[in-house]
Amino acid sequence: MTPSAVAVLTAAGSGARLGLGCPKALAELAACTLVGHAASRLSASGQITQIVVTAPAAHHAAVSEALSATPGITVPWRVVEGGPSRQASVAAGLAELARTMDPAAPYDVVLVHDAARPLASAALVSRVVAAVREGAGAVVPGLPVTDTIKSVAVSADGPERVTGTVDRSVLRAVQTPQGFAWELLLRAHAAGADRAQDESTAATDDSSLVEALGEAVHVVPGEAEALKITTTYDLAVAGLLLAETVAGADAADTGSPVTSQPTTAVPTTGA
Ligand SMILES: Nc1ccn([C@@H]2O[C@H](COP(=O)(O)OP(=O)(O)OP(=O)(O)O)[C@@H](O)[C@H]2O)c(=O)n1
Ligand SMILES: C[C@](O)(CO)[C@H](O)COP(=O)(O)O
């Protein structure tokens, strides 16, 4: 049976902290939307056979248009409505993948990736898929933490007070794409479904739902380029990183839809 890795690309957030007045996934970096950057890199990995993108209900068409306008997305994609939390949005993407799966050709790997991490490279996508196929049921990219981390007591009427210093040698800042054996992620989302309706109770990533099942989660090296865009500062940093990549590796295939050469339009639907 031919193995098939599929992806859920989350883009249904509001982008309140970015504050641009549009969903974060539609913010632009070098004349391409964040969701377009992320999808084109998933596609460029050559590992993914289809992408389901979650969008805010009111911006379904705009997200589709953004993807249609992005050069370099050669794998089939489609857009579904997201939910009230990231966890709910991923669940909606998984439901769409499950609904349309050919039982004769089941998926072996599913990636969950954030449009908010537009510069995660095609190489990182491949690394995560490979680790799942080598037998890790759940895989996250992670980077060592470089700051000294303190725990604090928070008080309503005074400054925070430090209660301890955490051993940072055992900490990792985890990123997306996160990769999973298909059946395992379905099981993890089913078990944690009661948390998904509210962002305050929802899991902030998918691997924590796997942890809650008592299953192992493995770490592969992450990358600085896979930074999460939360504020305008992050967007500015990503712009600098992208400019450096384009200048330094114009000839290399990084999966970026942005090059200094004219690009050719590609098919615009998930078909
Ligand atoms: N209900 C939600 C909330 C978030 N996301 C996605 O999950 C990723 C990480 O979320 P976050 O960075 O928190 O994005 P926003 O929710 O858009 O940001 P903010 O909290 O500032 O509004 C993003 O790709 C976002 O689009 C989603 O698909 N559905
Ligand atoms: C999934 C994630 O990108 C891993 O670091 C992160 O947890 C998303 O967090 P957010 O609170 O939704 O921004």
From TrEMBL:
Residues 251-271 are annotated as: Disordered. Residues 256-271 have a biased composition (Polar residues). CDD domains: CDP-ME_synthetase. The keyword Transferase applies. It catalyses: 2-C-methyl-D-erythritol 4-phosphate + CTP + H(+) = 4-CDP-2-C-methyl-D-erythritol + diphosphate. Its EC number is 2.7.7.60. It is an enzyme of class 2 (transferase). Pathway: Isoprenoid biosynthesis; isopentenyl diphosphate biosynthesis via DXP pathway; isopentenyl diphosphate from 1-deoxy-D-xylulose 5-phosphate: step 2/6. One of its GO terms (biological process) is isopentenyl diphosphate biosynthetic process, methylerythritol 4-phosphate pathway. Keywords: Isoprene biosynthesis, Nucleotidyltransferase, Transferase. GO terms for molecular function: 2-C-methyl-D-erythritol 4-phosphate cytidylyltransferase activity. The record marks R168, K228 as: Positions MEP for the nucleophilic attack. The keyword Transferase applies. The record marks R17, K24 as: Transition state stabilizer. It holds the Pfam family IspD. InterPro entries: IspD, IspD/TarI, IspD/TarI_cytidylyltransf_bact, ISPD_synthase_CS, Nucleotide-diphossugar_trans. It comes from the Bacteria. Catalyzes the formation of 4-diphosphocytidyl-2-C-methyl-D-erythritol from CTP and 2-C-methyl-D-erythritol 4-phosphate (MEP). Belongs to the IspD/TarI cytidylyltransferase family. IspD subfamily. This is 2-C-methyl-D-erythritol 4-phosphate cytidylyltransferase.
